[in-house]
Amino acid sequence: MLDAMQTGAPPLVQMDNIYKQFGGIHAVEGVSTDLYPGEVVGVLGHNGAGKSCLMRILSGAMRASSGQIHVNGAPADMKSPHDARAFGIETIYQTLALANHLDAPANLFMGRELRTRFGNLDEKRMLSEATEALRQLNPNFKNLREPVARLSGGQRQVIAIARAIYFQAKILIMDEPTAALGPSETAMVADLTLKLKQEGIGIFLISHDMADVFELCDRVMVMNKGRNVGAFRIEDVNKDDILSLIIKGTLPDDWEPRGNSR
Amino acid sequence: MTAPIEPPRIRFLPSGSTLHKLSAVITLALLIAVFSFTSPAFLSVNNGLTVLLQTSVIGLLAIGMTMVIITGGIDLSVGSILALSGVITGLTIKAGLPVVPAMGLGVLTGALCGFVNGLVISKMRITPFVATLGMMLIARGLALQLTGAAPISRLGEAFGTLGNGALFRIVEMQPNGFPKVIFPGIPYPAILLLVVAVLGWFLLQKRQIGRHIFSVGSNEEAARLSGVNVDRTKIWAYTASGALAGVAGMVLMSRLVTVQPNEGVMYELDAIAASVIGGASLMGGVGSISGSMIGAFIIGVLRNGLNMAGTSAFVQMIIIGIVVIGAVYIDQIRNKI
Ligand SMILES: Nc1ncnc2c1ncn2[C@@H]1O[C@H](COP(=O)(O)OP(=O)(O)O)[C@@H](O)[C@H]1O
Ligand SMILES: [Mg+2]
C-alpha cells in the first residue's frame, strides 16, 4: 500500500512548515508531514503537544498562523470545515462531536442534510441511508430515532465513523477516537480503521495506546512542545524509542534504525 | 462488537416532550375551568375573542423567541422592537404612505433590528443576553425620541382593520339604524397567529434552517465542525424574532388604532415564559412551536382570568412568576426520571 510513495505520485496530504500561535503560546511550530493513500500515520505526543491543533488546521476547524497545505499536489486553503470536506477530509473527534438532542440520522447528515425536490428535509431517505450506513458498521445498531444522548459511547462513535464513510472520505483524521470507549468498542474501531485503510483511505490517527499504534500505523510522527521531533516507519522504532521521543523529545542515545526495511 | 440485544421497549408513557405538552394542555383546561367557575363572564364569546387577541400578540412574539431559545440564545429586545416598528409605521402613515406599505416598513424595521442583534451576537461575539439588552434600550430610545414620547393617533380607519377586523363577521342593520353583530367572526390577529405558527413549525421541522437551529442549540461546536454555518443560522433566528416582533407591533397598535411608543414593555418576559412553559430549554436544542402556543394561551388565559376575577396587576406578576418557575421545575424533574 506504500506503492504511491515509491511511484512518486503526489501525497494525499502534504503539510509544510505549519505554525500556530495563541498569543504567546506556540501550539504548533514549523511542523511538516505528509500522508499517502492507504496508509495510517500515527500522530503521537503528550497532552498539549499540539496534535489536535495540527489536525484541526487540516480539517478547517482552525486557521494556521502560517504554512501551506497541499491535497493531491494542489494547494488547499482550508478556511472552514466546509472547505475541508470538499477535499474529502473527514474528522472523527476525541470529544464525540454530536448534537445530543438530535437522533442518529440527523447527526449523520448534520450540515449536509438530504433534501427533497422542494428543498424540504428528506427525513425518509436520511433514515433509510443512515440505517444502512450504521448497520454496515454495527448490525445491532438500534434506536435510530432516539436522541443520541441516550446511546452508548460506542454507538455514538459508530455514528461519527459512519458519517466519514458515507461521505466517502479520502482523508480521515481520527483524534483519539477511542478515548471515550470501552475495550470491545475500541477493538471495533481498530477493525474499522484497518478496513478503511484497505479501501485506500489515508488516515491520521492520534492515539495514546501504544498497542493500537503498533497494530495500525505504517508510520508515526512524534510531536513535542509543538515541534515535530521525529517521523519514522513503524518498523524502525520500538515502544521505548517512541516513549523517549514523546517524553524527552529525542531518541535514546544508542538508537539506530531497527527495521530491515530499507 | 457484540452489543447485547435489547428487548423492544414497551411504551406505555408518551415520550418526554409529548408528556410536557400534555401536562401544559391539562393546565390550560384546568385554568379555563377554574376561571369559568369564579367569573361567569369568562366563558362568553366576547371574552374568548379578547383572550384570542391578547394571546395573538404574545404568541407571535413567542414563535420568534422559541427559535432564538432553541439556538441557545435569548431575545430581550422584542418588546422594544414591537414599539419601534409601530412608531415607524405610524410616522410613515402620517407622512402620507398608505397603510399596507407602511406596515411592511414596520415589519422590516423589526427584521433589521433583529438582524443587528444577530450580527452583534455572531460577529462581535457579544452574549445574546447583553446584545439584546442593548437593543432593548436602543429600540425603545429610538421609539420615544422619534415621537417625543407622545402617542400617534388619528391614523385612519384602515390602520385599525388588522387588529379589529374579522373574517366571516355577519352584521345586520336593525330597523333602528344600529348595526347588530350576529356572528363576531374570526379575528384577523387569530388567523395571522395560526398562519405564522404553521409557517414557523414548517421552517423548524421540515426545512434545513430549522434543523440547523436545533443543531446549533444542541452542540454549537459540533454543528460548526460539521459544516453548519453557525453565524448565518443565529442571524436568521434573531432576524425572524425581530420581524415577528414587528408583526406583533402591527397587530397591537392596529388594535388600539394608535401608536404608543411605550407599548410592549416587559412583553419579552411573557414571550420567554410562553416558550419555557411550552417546553423550550434555555440551554438550547429543545423547544417547539406547538408547545409555545400552548404556553402563550396559558399566559393569555391566566392574565385575562385574573383580570376578570379582579386580581391586581401586581398579584398577576407574582402568580405568573410562580407559574414560570413551576413549569421549569416540573420539566427538570421530568428530565431526571
Ligand atoms: N483554542 C485555543 N486557545 C488557546 N490555546 C489553545 C487552544 N487550543 C489549544 N491551545 C493550546 O495549544 C497547545 C496544544 O494543544 P493541543 O493541540 O490540544 O494538544 P494535544 O492535542 O496534543 O493534547 C496547548 O498548550 C493548548 O493549551
Ligand atoms: Mg488533543
Radius of gyration of chain A: 19 Å
Count of runs of 4 or more consecutive helical residues of chain A? 9
CATH topology of chain B: ABC transporter involved in vitamin B12 uptake, BtuC
Largest sheet strand order of chain A: 6-7-8-3-9-10
Count of spatially separate domains of chain B: 1
Average pLDDT, all residues of chain A: 89
Low-confidence segments of chain A, given as residue ranges, are none
Report the sheet with the most strands of chain A, covering strand number, pairing sense and barrel closure: 6 strands, mixed
Oligomerization: heterodimer
Share of residues in strands of chain B: under 5%
Give me the Rg of chain B, rounded: 21 Å
Kindly report the greatest chain-chain contact and the residue count on each side. A-B, 36 and 28 residues
Nearest-integer average pLDDT of chain B: 90
Residue stretches of chain B low in confidence (pLDDT < 50, at least 5 long) are 1-13
CATH topology of the domain at 2-97 and 171-248 in chain A: the name is Rossmann fold
Q: What is the CATH C-level name of the domain at 2-97 and 171-248 in chain A? A: Alpha Beta
Overall SS class of chain A? alpha/beta
- The percent of residues in helical segments of chain B reads 55-70%
